[in-house]
């Protein structure tokens, strides 16, 4: 495309600019930009206010040449183009029309029309996913949602949680869901195959009524996923899943998790404590901390006093491992991953 644009620019500068307009809106459509972002982008691109009125409305939203929103208004006599299902988009240029004004109107109208159809197609699926994962949905609502997604009465289904910005590998019913840990994408699948590069995969649900429990376990699994284990299956947690669910009901962090937090404000890091659980030697820990091994030896001697138990014993390492899990559950949030 760049090569073509360069050739056109040499032969016909106006045609080259037209190609840039088309490419600009193609990128917005491909990026699934919403209507507001589409209109702001169009206004900035053409350097003049753009308006959009939906069907049945007397006035529409308007955006200035710098992308800021103006007060609502009608299209009046401005050049306009239909944007599907009775809506219209218009361009408010006070001076002489520019060469590509008509093209900008045409492309933004097409983009908004595509966006409208796309939303209409996916909205029922998203709504069905939301209903199946909601804690307050009635049984008949769940049954209707399961039927819409063609879930069998006793078919195994897994709820999955993936970061909002992560791309799905395969086409599955999904919806963005607000949780107390941040916004994540909820996915429903008939198997436990990873749907994305990072995911928390919930336990299998055998009915629509069980999906809520599967979803809770998926959120726990995603919060425990990290760069070393980007895909975490709740079923693999075993008894730790019950412990994690109990911990989620606590108003304050478990004292063992709080001890990890206190240690992390000093010379210890979570990464080093994890290495200690995994059996790292004193010299390896010293290298990780960037200190002499004798300094690390002194720190290790003080560690039982800080934790309240001795991590050099088998029971102590297990307790530290669980404490690190509870600490991660208490601190992971998804809002920064969008």
Sheet-strand content, in percent, reads 15-25%
Sheet/helix structural class: alpha+beta
In round numbers, the mean pLDDT is 86
Count of extended strands: 10
Question: How helical, in percent, are the residues?
Answer: 40-55%
**Taking Cα atoms only, what radius of gyration do you get, to the nearest Å?**
28 Å
Low-confidence stretches: none
Main β-sheet description: 5 strands, antiparallel
Q: N- to C-terminal separation?
A: 30 Å
General form: elongated
Strand order of the largest sheet: 3-2-1-5-4
- Give the ordered list of helices and strands: HHHEEEEEHHEEEEHEHHHHHH
Number of helices: 12
Summary?
The protein has 338 residues and is of the alpha+beta class. 49% of the residues lie in helices and 15% in strands.
Explain what you see:
The protein is α+β, with helices and mostly antiparallel strands. The chain contains 12 helices and 10 strands. The chain has a 5-stranded antiparallel sheet, covered by helices on one side. It has a 5-stranded mixed sheet with strand order 7-8-6-9-10. The longest helix has 33 residues, at 101-133. The protein is elongated, with a radius of gyration of 28 Å. It comes from Paeniglutamicibacter kerguelensis. Pfam families: HTH_30 (PF13556).
Question: Could you give the topology of this structure?
Answer:
Elements: H1 2-11, H2 13-30, H3 35-46, E1 50-53, E2 60-63, E3 69-73, E4 80-82, E5 88-91, H4 101-133, H5 139-148, E6 157-163, E7 174-179, E8 182-189, E9 199-205, H6 211-224, E10 231-233, H7 239-248, H8 255-264, H9 270-277, H10 282-289, H11 293-307, H12 314-331
Parallel strand pairs: 9-10
Antiparallel strand pairs: 1-2, 1-5, 2-3, 4-5, 6-8, 6-9, 7-8
